[in-house]
Amino acid sequence: MENRIRLFVDVRDVAESLLLLYEKPEAHGRYICSSYTIRMRDFIDKLKSMYPNYNYPKQITEFDENLDLTTEKLQKLGWRYRALEETLEDSVKSYQEKGILD
Hints:
Elements: E1 2-3, E2 5-8, H1 11-23, E3 36-39, H2 40-50, E4 61-62, H3 72-76, H4 84-97
Parallel strand pairs: 1-4
Antiparallel strand pairs: 2-3
């Protein structure tokens, strides 16, 4: 697996951002809706710390890239997002309930 930069956002935060944009008359143009910009190694380390009993990639190769995106414009309208840990907990719980994860 390549240690690429990934953008993460909770679908509930996306829905809330859409409602916010529809409700704010000053909203115009394009908005970036991404809560976290994180490299895969850091993401996997986070998952390992929360869920150590799952299988994770053994080899991660470095990948040099830069990504300069910001949600500042959306946050200025009042958008707030969930903690990454909350999103991961809720996602894993949902996957477990659906039988996707053992």
